[in-house]
Design a protein that fits this description.
- There is one protein chain.
- The chain is built from 11 helices and 21 strands.
- It has about 375 residues and is α/β, with parallel strands linked by helices.
- It folds into 2 domains: about 220 residues, Alpha-Beta Barrel (TIM Barrel); about 100 residues, Lyase, Ornithine Decarboxylase, Chain A, domain 1 (Beta Barrel), CATH 2.40.37.10.
- Helix 5 links the parallel strand 4 and strand 5.
Length: about 375
């Protein structure tokens, strides 16, 4: 039974059955021989990393990807025992915690490689690492074009064991273009070069969600699904290639209803002025909850299965809707900000379009003060 907290009614519900379904679709796509590293960084893309990881571990995820050491420690403290890869940078000052929590760091440049090698050697220990190769993202990673230089350093390693090797596609939503294909060729050449030099990491990985759905040539030993686990398609065109189920719904309730005459301004700055007698619903949610201020006078929410437009500027803690056109609205009615109500739905992609951003940011921006209620476990 799902326990809903009393008090402020703004919350997210997380459908763990949908999460399980989505991981099963990944497994069906890649087969039994390819490992799955489930990406649960940024608090499980806003869904609550510990609860999400527990379910994915039960469902057969082979490991987890996080961005920071702190995210990895949180998973260990939640009882997650499977491998955890920390992908967004490693700092020697954190070495003790990497060892204590059995976390695998990523090494992405020679300076970090040398410092980590020396520090692990000084402990008289060994440590598994993954190498990050920059094949065109232009972010972090050993430059593919400089392989002769950094490969020589890899051969000198004694304390660091190269357990994995990966790169990152620069296009997250579509991996059908020439640039993506060039990245795949570059990465494959890097893998072959290392193997020819006697370095053969057992875990080679490249595929993001889009590549997991559409590009089997990028699977290698392991795939790294992220957004698709949470029921979001990297692009709408992929909906006919795999069936995913949205995991998160965001809802609140009307805290006040107010009938106002024509000519009444709503919220800061008088950016919305009623053109008729109007019924305005105030919601206990605002940009401090992650409901973006960019949705001011652009977004909408679902009330009694109908769309109600945002009226005026989204405030820090409150947002107003114009519910004049919706019959029988009452104080306390449920309002769905993201998700389904009856036959109507607001998707993360639609909300992202209103705010001129992407679904990833919509999900990860939902603030910690919004409770996540996990159900259907």
């Amino acid at each position: 039974m799902t326990t809903i907290p009393t008090g402020r009614p703004t919350l997210c519900t997380i459908d763990l059955a949908a999460l399980r379904w989505n991981l099963r679709q990944v497994r069906a796509k890649v087969g039994a021989q390819v490992k799955i590293l489930s990406m649960v960084k940024a608090n499980g893309y806003g869904h609550g990393a510990p609860a999400v990881a527990r379910v994915l571990a039960e469902e057969g995820s082979d490991g987890f990807g996080v961005a920071t050491l702190e995210e990895g420690v949180e998973l260990r403290q939640a009882g997650i025992g499977k491998p955890i890869l920390v992908v967004a940078g490693t700092y020697v000052e954190q070495l003790d915690q990497f060892f204590e929590n059995n976390l695998t760091p990523v090494v992405h440049d020679l300076e970090s490689l040398r410092r980590l090698e020396n520090a692990v050697q000084a402990r008289g220990a060994t440590m598994n690492v993954h190498l990050k190769i920059d094949t065109g993202m232009g972010r972090i990673g050993f430059l593919a074009a400089e392989i002769d230089f950094w490969l020589a350093e890899l051969k000198k390693l004694r304390a660091l064991q190269i357990d994995g090797m990966f790169s990152h596609f620069s296009t997250a939503e579509n991996v059908a273009g020439d640039f993506t294909r060039a990245q795949l060729v570059t990465f494959s050449n890097q893998v072959q070069r290392l193997r020819a030099e006697g370095i053969a990491p057992p875990l080679v990985h490249l595929a993001n969600s889009a590549a997991t759905i559409t590009l089997p040539a990028a699977y290698f030993d392991m795939v790294r699904p992220g957004i698709m686990l949470y029921g979001i398609y990297p692009s709408a065109a992929m909906a006919n290639q795999i069936e995913l189920k949205p995991v998160l719904s965001w809802q609140t309730r009307i805290v006040q209803l107010k009938k106002v005459p024509a000519g009444t301004s709503i919220s800061y700055g008088q950016t919305f002025v009623t053109e008729r007698e109007s019924l305005i619903a105030t919601l206990p949610v605002g940009y401090a909850d992650g409901y973006s201020r960019l949705l001011s006078n652009r977004g909408a929410a679902l009330v009694r299965g109908k769309r109600a437009p945002v009226a005026g500027r989204v405030c820090m803690d409150l947002t107003m809707l114009d519910v004049t056109a919706i019959a029988n609205v009452q104080q306390g009615d449920e309002v769905v900000l993201l998700g389904r109500q009856g036959a109507a739905e607001i998707s993360a992609d639609e909300m992202a379009g209103w705010a001129n951003t992407i679904s990833y940011e919509v999900l990860t921006s939902i603030a910690a003060r919004v409770p996540r209620i996990h159900h259907n476990s």
